Amino acid sequence: MTEQFTLEKHLQLSIEQSDTDTYIVRANEENGNSVSPSELVSYLFFNDEQTFFGLLTETNEDHLILKADQLLQSFPESHPYVKFTGLTEEDTKQLQAVREAADGWRKPELWKHAQADDNGIHFDTEKLEVSTEAAQVLQSAVYSKLANAMIRPEQLTFLLPHIQKYGWPGESQTTIPVRTALRLTEPEEESDSTEWLLETVIINERGRHWTPAIRKKHLPIEEALTERWKPYAKEILKRQSEMLSFLHSLQPEWQDQFLSIPMADAEVRIFLQEDLPLLQSFGFPVILPAWLKSITESKMRVRTSASVQSYQSATGLDEVLAFDWSFSLAGNEIDQQSFRRLVEENREYIRSGDEWFHIDPVWLQKIRDLMERADAGEWTVKDLLFQDVPEEIAPLADDEEEFESDPLLEFSMQKSLRTYMETLAEKKGLPSAGIPAELNATLRPYQEDGYNWLVFMRDNQFGACLADDMGLGKTVQLIAYLLNVHNRPETTGPSLIVCPTSVLGNWQKELERFAPSLSVHLHYGPSREKDEDFKTFVQTKRPDVILTTYGTASQDGEMLAETEFTAITLDEAQNIKNMQTKQSRAIRKLHGQHHIALTGTPIENRLSELWAIFDFIHRGYFGNFRTFTDQFIIPIERDDSERDKRKLRAKIRPFLLRRTKNDPDLLLNLPKKLEQNEYCPLTTEQAALYESFLDETKFKLETLTGFEKKGLVLTMLNRLKQLCNHPALFLKEPNRPAAEMVARSEKLKSIVSMSANIAANGEQCIIFTQYIGMGRLLQHCLSELHNIDAPFLTGSMPKTQRDSLVDDFQKGNFPIFILSLRAGGTGLNLTAANHVLHADRWWNPAVENQATDRAYRIGQTKFVHVHKFVTIGTIEEKIDKMLEEKAALSADLILSNQWLAELSDDDLDDLLSFG
Q1: DSSP code string of 503-533
Q2: Which of 649, 481, 653 is nearest to 569 (CA)?
Q3: What does the DSSP assignment read for 220-259?
Q4: pLDDT digit string (tens) for 741-776?
Q5: Residue 183, SS3?
Q6: 3-state secondary structure of 450
Q7: Rounded to the nearest 5 degrees, what angle is found at the Cα of 791, between the Cα atoms of 785 and 795?
Q8: Model confidence at 186: pLDDT above 50
């Protein structure tokens, strides 16, 4: 029996949707061999002239890439010798949906069964007689067709009524020998009219434009046409109606006559921006003035120069700025009167010489508003200095690299005003306040500058943030300021200093040492005056300075808020950084004639902390917190906006005086400082506990979300850090013999050994830890193994004992001083030490640096060696890398809020890995 021969080819198709409107199509023969893309094109598009038989189809090595409308176009009819089936069951379903959609795509009533809304286009599957899957393919084909016409999907809602009435634009064919077009004509040069003309014109066989005579413009189209074109009247009217249905700019009640309608500048702009692209996308002819093609290249220039009458003293800050305005267009000068008339007429298209230009009317109105505010004397030198003048007039000083080479608005200052502004901004050359004779100290030049600046800020009613590095002498600068203020006859009330408890004694001693003429009262402890007793004491004893702590000021906040202090100073002002705490709110409610913040770390972690400090020193400067969040926190912390960082720096710069030890202009002559990590491995016991705790914590984290998860992360990180120090801290075991304890932790062994060697060499060191248990353990091991009695300063230690220990250490009475990081990390002067040991790492580099600066500060004459102990392979090593990144950000006064409890899942997984 002979085998039957057949010409029919059987191809198995794979159809995969790769995007909203794109499909990948592959084919195999029955034997499994793949069909080349070029061969597949010839089968799919064998009879499709519209796509040039598939010549423009995009292909890859083994597949076709078809837009949805191309795919439907390829299935109008089957190839006579090729049978298509699906490669898999899923492909069979997809192929069936494509065939159904292709049938629906060809139906004239397709668009009548469509609806469009904000969510896209939808088809009535019952009336169109297609499946839901086929309707989805049709949706994809519509989006593909829109993309080909350069039409945005959101425009479909506007277009659909047009399509339902006239069909897809541009697809209807016309056989008449003339074309119908729209023509836009600019106002006549000789006329005073500012109106444009939009009209329908006929383009004849030779390309010439024809419009009816003026006397016939209001006649029906058939009567207005010439005799030889009257047979085409119905087609011309239909074409005009189709074009007019696109117009956003006009909604004319046009019936059967030729369009001829005047347009204002604003209407022309809408026509050019919204209507013209649609008309051009669908091939409708639109005739425009030739100059419109290059109109976007034209700009009006505005130049203004600011000046004042005098700038010889601080009172010059209140002088009103005077502005000199000038305008030009394409090199031609425009006087102010003409400019104002352009704005009043709401003009957008302006003729200058033989050229036309487009000017944004909103921008023109904005410039006019700025001119009126400036001419009304709204801005002073003070506003210019503190960036309270709109950026259009006075852009950021360090933002020039972002300007256009030829900006629309140029701002300049007269040379004398610019010099004065630079003096104020750089805080150099300020009026000398005269160093008080009662000051028992010689101020370094930079300290005198700081003192002059504090007095200047007071005299001009500006808050101040003195943010010098730790150890540069903020205390003596403030004491000089207090002497100046309390020597004035108009000063009657006391000044208030709020500081951490750990430095309360230091303030007492420094005031007594540098300014014995000032009467100082300590508002602290259970026997302090309250309520009426406090008021009576202030009125009768009339102290110059009242010293208190943050805790006391928080407890007595309402009482203290009833007194207006001559000045209020916050030492270590970062203590009010968390604005929602009771302490921060109480401090920010205090009233003083002048508010000053002293801090070595104006920002530790978040910009919200900066807002809290500025809300204290100069209330209202940044508005409420919600406004500050919208203007700065979101664009900087979320989007890392460099421009907003520069803008924020420009805003805080006048209020912030910051000098660092590395500033060569200060001529500090400080000794060098070396910082290095001391790496320690985990013992076998620690490693086993570490891995077990990680596994347990990861399991718990999977069951938690949100706030609970953040709380567990913080608790877990602290437990792991204690484990890195010593397993006994983690297990909460009591101390055993020192030899046994050091054998269980390489870190403990290293710290004890290193500090003992330092002491043996006749040097002194300070050891910082954030855990009381670690401090006690270090004391125990140093005493038992090396016979060294190392005091441990904690937050619970009485003030008198703390002050005594600091004095004894400075006198060299003992070589090793252990300090709690929170209690001893700020305010203390421990320059007797030339080694600083950080037993465990803090989350924040600024806090660590503050602690280091207990030794590395003015008065230090020795080389300072800083040792930071890091346990290898643990969170300590990972956090050390994060700290390096945070330290780089801190130098820029901008720190990320992505930290610890807010770490991403990937970062958290990395932190919780071991090894």
Answers
A1: GHHHHHHHHHHH-TTS-EEE--STTS--HHH
A2: 481
A3: BHHHHS-GGGGGGHHHHHHHHHHHHTT-SS------SB--
A4: 999 998 999 899 889 989 988 899 999 999 999 999
A5: strand
A6: helix
A7: 135
A8: yes
As annotated, the residues of the chain forming the CATH 3.40.50.10810 domain(s) are: 445-666
Compute the residue count for the chain. Answer: 915
- Beta bridge partner(s), residue 261: 198
CATH superfamily, region 673-911:
P-loop containing nucleotide triphosphate hydrolases (3.40.50.300)
**Widest CA span in the chain:** 131
Weakest mean pLDDT among 137-141, 463-467, 865-869, 892-896: 892-896
Q: Which of 502, 495, 490, 536 is nearest to 518 (CA)?
A: 495
Per-residue pLDDT, averaged over 817-841, amounts to 87
Closest CA to 638 of 909, 911, 894: 894
pLDDT value for 792: 95
Q: Which SS3 state, helix, strand or coil, does residue 184 take?
A: strand
Integer Cα distance of 414 and 741 in angstroms: 73
Among 717, 714, 740, 718, smallest CA distance to 728 is for: 740
* Residue 204: partners with Cβ closer than 8 Å, 6 or more residues away: 177, 178, 210
Tell me if 765 sits within 8 A of 758, measured CB to CB.
Answer: yes
Check if the beta carbon of residue 845 is closer than 8 Å to that of residue 883. yes
Q: What are the DSSP calls for 154-178, one per residue?
A: GGHHHHHHHHHHH-STT-S---SSS
Residue 225 structure tokens: 């046409």
DSSP 380: B
What DSSP designation does 414 have?
Answer: -
Integer Cα distance of 194 and 191 in angstroms: 8
The beta-strand segments (E) located in 218-376 are 260-263, 286-287, 300-307, 322-329, 332-334, 349-352, 355-358
- Three-state DSSP state, 185: strand
Handedness of CA 833, 839, 845, 848 (dihedral sign): negative
Measured CA distances, 751 to 160, 818, 836, 905 (Å): 78, 11, 11, 34
- Distances in Å between the Cα of 603 and the Cα atoms of 64, 648, 723 are 57, 13, 30
366 touches 303 (CB < 8 A): no
Whole-number Å distance between alpha carbons of 323 and 34 = 77
CATH number of 445-666: 3.40.50.10810
Question: Residue-wise over 144-165: b if at least 16 C-beta within 10 A, else e?
Answer: bbbbebebeeebbeebbebbee
* Residue 10, token pair as written in the block: 């059987």
Q: Two tokens at 492?
A: 């009657």
The answer to whether the CB of 330 falls within 8 A of the CB of 403 is no
Quick one: tokens of 846?
């600024």
Determine phi and psi for 329, rounding to 5 degrees: -135, 115
Structure tokens at 395: 């852009």
What are the residue ranges of CATH 3.40.50.300 in the chain?
A: 673-911
What is the distance in angstroms between the CA of the first residue and the CA of the last residue of the chain? 75
Q: Is the pLDDT of residue 363 over 80?
A: no
Residues 309, 167: Cα–Cα separation, whole Å: 71
Asked if 440 contacts 416 with a C-beta cutoff of 8 angstroms, the reply is: no
Q: Which H or E run includes 68?
A: helix 68-73
Give the pLDDT confidence score for residue 585 in this predicted structure. 86
CA distance 245 to 158: 10
Q: Tell me, what's the pLDDT at 297?
A: 43
With contact defined as beta carbons under 8 Å apart, do 602 and 656 qualify? Answer: yes
